[in-house]
Amino acid sequence: MPINISKELPAIEVLKEEKIFVMDEDRARTQDIRPLNIIILNLMPEKEKTELQLLRLLGNTPLQVNISFLRMTTHRSKNVDKSHLDTFYEKFADIKDRRFDGMIITGAPIEHLAFEEVNYWEELAEIMEWTKENVTSVLHICWGAQAALYYHYGIGKYELPKKISGIYNHRVADPTVKLVRGFNDIFQAPHSRYTAVSVEEIKNHPDLELLSASDEVGAFIIMSQDAKHIMITGHLEYDATTLAEEYERDLSKGLDADIPENYFPNDDINERPLNSWRSHTHLLFSNWLNYYVYQQTPFEWK
Question: Is 49 annotated as a binding residue?
Fold first, then answer.
C-alpha cells in the first residue's frame, strides 16, 4: 500500500522514479480504508533530503500511511526555503488537538549544546510531553533519541574524544523482540555523532530495554518497556552517499575530520560507498509500523 503525501511535495517525483508506491491526497480520499497517520518532526537542516529518506522507508510496507510534517516555530531553518516550510509543514499549535498513530523525531546537528541550551528545547519538550497521550509510538533518531532518553528517562549524553562517523557492526540482544524480528545476529548501520549515551544507565533503567549495541560505538536500538518510545542512536535512514557528503562538508568548514570508518571501499574517497544496511533499515521501519503502530493503535481515537 502507498504513502499518502501532497502531490506538490518535491520528493514525490523521485519516489515515483524509484517505484515507491505513492498516492496523493486526492486519490486517497476515494479509498474506503483507515490509513495510519504518521507525523514527522524534521529537525535536520537539509529537510528535503531527510523527507526523501524517510518517505522511501514508510512507503515500503503493506500499510497505507498518511504523512504529515511538523516544524519548530522557535527556530528558523537556514537550509530550506520558507515557502517549502509554509506549504508542507505544520506548526505544533495546528496539530496539538489531533492524535497520531506514529511519530518520527529526527536528529539534529546540535550535539555540542546542552539540551536546555537548544533554542527550541522548551517547544520540543512540550511536543514530547504531548506524545504521551496523543501518539501510539514514537521513533526517535540520533540526537532525537538522545533528547528522548534525557527528557523521558533522565539519561544524559556525554561528549566523545572525536566524532563517530562510519559503518559499524551491531549485535542483536534478543531476536525474539518484534522490532528486530528478521534481523541477522550481527548487522551494519551508519553513525554520525559527537556524543554518546551510557550503556550501563540504559541497562539499569527499569523502563528501558537495550535491543542492539556495538562494541565500537555503544548503544544503538533502545526501546521502552511499553514500546511507546523507540530510540535509534545512529542513522539507518541514511543514503549510501550521506556520510561522504557530511565528510566533505566538515572538510569545507576546516574541521579536522577523519575519513568515515568502514565506509569507502579500500578507504579510497574516490570509490563510491556501498549501502550495506538497506535491508535492515527497511525491516526495522516495517516492524515498527506493523507491530508497534498498526497492531497497537486504536481504530478510532477517543
Answer: no
